Amino acid sequence: MSLPDDDSVLNDDASRADLEDPSGAESNEDSTVPQLPELEPFDPPGEFDHGEEFEPQTPRPIPKYLRQGSHGRRKRGMIYSLIALGIMFIVFWPIPFVQGLSFYILPLKWLHWIGFGLVGLGVWNYLAGLVSTGRYTYVKNGEPFMGRVLDCQKVDSGTADVPAFRHVARVEYRQPDTDQHLIQDFPEPDNWSTSKLNQMSCPLKRGDYVTLVRLPGKGDSSNALYGYLGLDPEREYILKNDQPMRGTSPFTAIMVAFLIAFVVLLFMAAFDVMMFSFPIGGDWKLPTGLAVGGFFIGGILGRLLWSKSENQQKSKSSTPSFLGIGFLGAITLPIAFFILNSRLDHAPTKLEPIEIVEY
Length: 359
Hints:
Elements: H1 70-92, H2 96-101, H3 111-131, H4 137-140, E1 143-156, E2 164-174, E3 181-187, E4 192-193, E5 200-201, E6 209-214, E7 224-225, E8 239-240, E9 243-244, H5 250-277, H6 285-308, H7 319-343
Helix pairs in contact: 1-3, 1-5, 5-7, 6-7
């Protein structure tokens, strides 16, 4: 069975310059940097709970609660998003103004095929999850053992053009086969944008005992810090706004897909209005009133959706959702009015002569 691609770890001889003080300043007696606590010689306690998922003999079954970890929820969220977005594209394709715009925006002519492709990609990911265990291989066939945290820091992992970071934990352990004392750096599998530098954190502290797990026959290169894999929802070692990473719920994933599809449809409708349906006269009080009403209707809807989303527990205010969805509502109702105003006008066409005065 192959090792999952996204569970790689650094070797013990990897460069440790990234874990040192980035300023490069030399320490001195007057330094205000707190000293790390001295640790006793590595002697793990005799009894350590690795979790009930590791109690059965290999190959172990995958408990259902492990599907609720951040890794499993993000996988399902991606599948739901792809399928929901694909279905919406298929539904949008036969809409008359979408067909009309396809003469100007050529990819719209194949919008339904794009939708079928997204649905197929979502189904493929679902089937792949049934065939391949991915990170769950560590639970199914892995061997758990103990380690002790020596350090955990944020390390640059991006480029000059795309800056990013991730957490790297330095852990000491005894090699299960040889009982040799080793030290290894364990980076988390994910990279984060530097815009989230103050949001993301790792609760591990120097001296904490943790579960390490390895795959049989793979050697030390397969070692992984179990809490970094996002499998056990009770052992999530990556926090966002001081809350465990829970991943994206199916409801949130579908709502995000719906919002993306809605924005795409709104853009196409606005283009249709500007090209064919924009009024050149009349009373503007009604569309103005619709814009104001759409803002408040959209804002209230945004707050209701926010209250059902798990993300609302991680934010102090739902004001951004009120303003964002409200802004979309303020655009949507006038655009819908302009389109209906044009489509419901069955008066005979009146042609007006024009004169081209400049070319």
